[in-house]
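Dear colleagues,

For the upcoming journal club I promised to circulate an example of a predicted protein-ligand complex. I picked one with S-adenosylmethionine because it came up in last month's discussion. The inputs are reproduced below in full, followed by the predicted structure.
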Amino acid sequence: MSGLPDHVLKNRAKWDAWADEYVASGERGWTQDAPAWGIWQVPESEVRMLPGDLAGKDAIELGCGTAYVSAWLHRRGAHVVGIDNSQAQLATARRLQREHALDFPLIHGNAESVPYTDASFDFAISEYGACLWADPERWVPEAARLLRAGGQLAFLTRSFLLTLCVPAEGDLAATDRLLRPAFGMNRIEWPGDQGVEFHLSHGDWIRLLRRSGFEIEDLIELRPAAGATTRYPFVTFEWAHQWPSEEVWKARKRP
Ligand SMILES: C[S@@+](CC[C@H](N)C(=O)[O-])C[C@H]1O[C@@H](n2cnc3c(N)ncnc32)[C@H](O)[C@@H]1O
């Protein structure tokens, strides 16, 4: 018995199987100088996911995958740690560390229970990592525990609106209809054994963040630039240019 929740075990198996499909995007991320975010690669100058001054700061990436975000933090002078649930994803991350001659700790584990003491970090980040695949009721309080007073949390995940517009079966791409109930949305398992995702309404995110000890600083709905493309089939440019397909939450741990 591993003692891990069933969604963590399921997602571990899925991400170990999907890891090969994320090698190319990982390699691209590691060679990129200027961060760009999400499936539309919205530039950092627009999103400002990262705090202005990371030099000497302690940072953690929750669900780091191939760890290109951690590499961006490291290059900005942060003492960064990446944690991920998939050994196969971390194998790519470790190879890229060697190829780019960058070294920082990479931990195989569950972002809902991180082996660091309270108040170890100044900044926590997740781009489609724990914020999509881990239970918010577990990982958000855990992020609050890990952060120092005044520390920042930034995460990017699929928008609630997009999830409402995806049919429960068939072609799992966003439509222009509301196809699932908004109330009570939390854990979602798409057909075809796609792993376990978590999606909250904006009200639920706000209440969870606040009761975990955060003040919310921003909610940014991302819009792709004209001509942007994505390899992901769950949303088209036409959809994402009209409605937000991705959202960024920024919060700060209360003193
Ligand atoms: C899409 S990748 C995120 C990395 C990168 N930003 C990207 O977009 O490719 C999702 C990652 O979240 C990790 N993950 C899923 N559940 C997790 C959990 N409970 N704890 C830590 N990592 C988790 C997966 O193993 C996977 O590597």
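Two points we might discuss: The pocket of S-adenosylmethionine is lined by residues 8, 11, 15, 22, 25, 63, 65, 69, 83-86, 89, 110-112, 127-130, 133-134 (CB under 6 Å). The chain has a mean pLDDT of 97.

See you all on Thursday,
B. R.
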